[in-house]
C-alpha cells in the first residue's frame, strides 16, 4: 500500500508504510454523564505522586522555604499540555502515541519502550515504601520488605480482571489517603509562619539554583507530577477508559482471570470530518482537557504545595535534612514531637502506601507501553495476545528488581544519572514528534494549534537542555 504522508486539507493523513491503513468509523458520542469516565488524569496524578512529592519538593522547602513552588506549577502545566497532545492523537484514532510514532519511523516505539525500562529498572519506589514501613514498625530489613512488595505488585497486576479498573481503584484510595493527610496537617501541623511563607512565595518567588544546584532545581521543574514514559501512557489509559475512538479498542485484561479479549490486531480508526463528527470531537476535546486539569493538574499541584508546607512547618532550616529517603524519618519523628505520636505514624503509613501504589503504577505503565508497542508493531499476526505480553513483561520487571535487591546493591549514582537523562531525553524527543504527528496526520480542524505548538517548543528545548546539562553536571562529580 502506498505511503500516505502528505497533508490533505480536512482529511486524516496517517502514514501507511510501516502499519496498515486505519478503518473509518464515526467518532463515538461522549457519554451523557461524563463524570462516569473521569479517571485517567487521576491515575496519572496518583502514579506520579511519588518521591518527588514526598521527598524532593518537601526537601527543597525545608532548605529554601516555599519561594520555589512556582516551579512545580510550571512543570505540571507543561506536562498537562504534553498529555493533551498525546491524548489528541488517541482520541482521534484509537491508536496510542507510540503506534502513531511507529507510523513515521519503524522503531520509534521500541526506542521509547527501551528508554522507559532504563528509567524504571531500579525498584526505588518499592524500597522507599519499604523504608517507611520500617519507620512505622520500628525495624525490619527494607530489602526483604521491598521484595515482598514487588511480588505482591506482580500478583495484583496479573490477577486483576481488567488491569486499568484495578489501578484506578488503587490510586483512588491513595489520593483519598493523601487528602486525609492534607486536611489533618492543615488542622494540627501547619502554623502561621508557613502561611506567611506561602504568601512570600507568591509575592517574592525565587530561583534557588545557587543554594540547591542548577540540576536539582531544573529536575524538580521538569519532573513535577510525571515525566518520561508516564506521560506517554496517557494514551493507553484513556483508551482503556473508552475515550473517543479508544472505545473501539479492546481493554487490557488478565490472561488468568480476565474477560475474553477481542481481536487486538485491528488497525487504528479515523472518522470523516463532517459537521456531526466534528461536533462530537469538540465535546470530547473539551471534556478531555477539563478532566486532565481537574485531576492531574489540580491533584498534583495541591499535593506538592501541602506536602511542602508540611515540611516547611516542621523542618525548615534543619541542617540534618538530606535529599534521601531518610528525610521522611526525620519529618515523621518531628511530627510526633510537634503534634503527637499518632500523626507521625499516620504520616509514615500514608507515605508507605502512596509509594507502594506509585510502584504498582510504574510497573504497570512500563509493561503496558511495551506490550502495546510489541503487539502493534512486531507481533500483529501472532496468536500471542497483548495481555500475555503484558503478563511476561510485568514479571520480568519484578524479577529484575528482586535480583537487584538480592545482590545487595544500593542505588548507584550511574542509575540516578541514567534515570534522569533518559526521562529528559524521552520528553525532548517526543515533544518534537507530537508536534510533527499532530500537525500532519490529523485533519486541519482538529490539529494542534499555534499556541499549543509554542508550549511543545518550550518543552522540546527545556527537556533537551536538562538532559544534556544533568549528564554533564553528574559526570563532573564522578
The total count of helices amounts to 19
User: What is the general shape?
Assistant: globular
CATH superfamily: Amino acid/polyamine transporter I
User: Poorly predicted ranges (pLDDT <50, ≥5 residues)?
Assistant: 1-9
| End-to-end gap | 52 Å
Helix content: 55-70%
In the CATH hierarchy, the third-tier topology is known as Amino acid/polyamine transporter I
Number of domains: 1
Strand content: under 5%
Protein name: Mn2+/Fe2+ NRAMP family transporter
Biased composition (Basic and acidic residues): 1-11
Keywords: Membrane, Transmembrane, Transmembrane helix
Transmembrane segments: 63-82, 108-125, 145-164, 171-192, 212-233, 293-315, 345-368, 389-407, 413-437, 449-472
Task: Describe this entry's structure for a reader.
- The protein has one domain (about 25-255, about 275-475): Up-down Bundle (Amino acid/polyamine transporter I).
- With about 475 residues, it is mostly helical.
- The protein has a two-stranded parallel ribbon.
- It has helices spanning about 40-50, 50-65, 70-95, 95-105, 110-120, 125-135, 140-160, 165-190, 190-205, 210, 215-220, 230, 235-240, 275-315, 325-340, 340-375, 385-405, 415-440, 450-475; strands at about 25, 270.
- It has 19 helices and 2 strands.
